[in-house]
Design goal:
Chain A: Keywords: Disulfide bond, Electron transport, Membrane, Mitochondrion, Mitochondrion inner membrane, Repeat, Respiratory chain, Transport. Chain A: Its main location: mitochondrion. The complex is a heterodimer of chains A (158) and B (128). Chain A has 158 residues and is an all-alpha fold. Chain A has one domain. Chain A is 48% helix and 0% strand. Chain A has five helices and no strands. Chain A is globular, with a radius of gyration of 19 Å. The relative contact order of chain A is 0.12. Chain B is mainly α and 128 residues long. Chain B has a domain of 66 residues. Chain B is built from two helices and no strands. The chains are: A mainly alpha (158), B mainly alpha (128). At the A-B interface, helix 2, helix 3 and helix 4 of A face helix 1 and helix 2 of B.
Chain lengths: 158, 128
């Protein structure tokens, strides 16, 4: 965090708090994945950790206090790390090619369908998760399975 | 002097037929054909425009849900960090205010039980 208007009286460079976390959340690791990987794995994450995620969000609805949902949050983080580890073990090639494509294309899914199909196929064969977008029309072809889409025909490749 | 005055009179015989009809060359398809053609072109364009709008809406939905699936993960990490910093601030506050009788460490400045996020960023004092 650098300059913020109205906070000139506060130091600008000393934002790091080196205090270690309290003992009961000390062993909870952070995920540590970059945005493209998370975007790439988002729907698998929703399928894998959906129950933990919903539990956590319901807890957050009861109270916005960070201290209130630490246990649920730790479960969410552990589940996400578990999924990403399994993805690395099983679908590393497909995942890498997809998130690298997303990285080059502004994190827009429509430019990376070519890389997404093998990834979805791999996730389905290894985990059994189908990519479903909630709220989409039931009888229509999902947007990620269109044969001739209107958008995303000219991806950036470097 | 009696003489017959010369007057303008018709030509002997008949006048030639007057050409009042315009003989214009044929000028393309008829109005009805043009109208129908225009209707066809516009319908084609409008169909694809509306279909692409539908697809765009689905793409937005896909993007929104990809982010919604990540919200708990990011929020959990953020909460843990905020909690850690708040606990550290409370510890510092207790250390600084330990000589003041009746001081409640970490007491909210707001008259409510609801959690109110900090409006001032947390930071470490320079001399710490």
């Amino acid at each position: 965090m650098s300059y913020r208007p109205g906070y000139d009286h506060l130091p600008r460079d000393n934002w790091v708090d080196p205090t270690p976390p309290p003992a009961h959340i000390q062993d909870v690791p952070n995920v540590g994945a970059t945005s493209a990987i998370l975007t790439s794995a988002a729907f698998a994450l929703g399928a894998h950790c959906g129950e933990y995620n919903e539990d956590f969000m319901l807890c957050k609805r009861d109270s916005a206090n960070p201290a209130h949902c630490l246990k649920e949050g730790a479960r969410v983080t552990r589940c996400s790390i578990d999924l990403l580890t399994q993805l690395r073990a099983n679908c590393l090639k497909e995942l890498s090619s997809h998130w690298n494509c997303l990285e080059l294309n502004n994190h827009e899914f429509q430019y990376c369908r070519k890389q997404e199909r093998p990834l979805n196929q791999c996730i389905f064969s290894k985990f059994g998760y189908t990519k479903t977008i909630p709220g989409a029309a039931k009888n229509a072809t999902p947007v990620h399975e269109l044969k001739k889409p209107y958008f995303g025909n000219t991806p950036n490749t470097f | 002097m009696s003489s017959i005055p010369t007057q303008d009179i018709g030509a002997p015989g008949k006048y030639p037929a007057f050409r009042y009809q315009r003989y214009l060359p044929k000028r393309g398809p008829s109005g009805a054909a043009l109208f129908l053609g225009l209707l066809g072109v516009v319908s084609f364009g409008m169909y694809h425009h509306l279909e692409s709008k539908k697809e765009w809406r689905e793409l937005k939905r896909e993007k929104i849900w990809s982010r919604l699936h990540l919200v708990p993960l990011l929020q959990a990490e953020q909460d843990r960090d905020t909690y850690r910093r708040e606990e550290a601030m409370k510890a510092r506050e207790a250390e600084i205010m330990k000589d003041v009788p009746g001081w409640e460490v970490g007491k909210s400045v707001y008259n409510t039980d609801r959690y109110v996020p900090r409006t001032v960023p947390l930071y470490i004092p320079e001399d710490k």
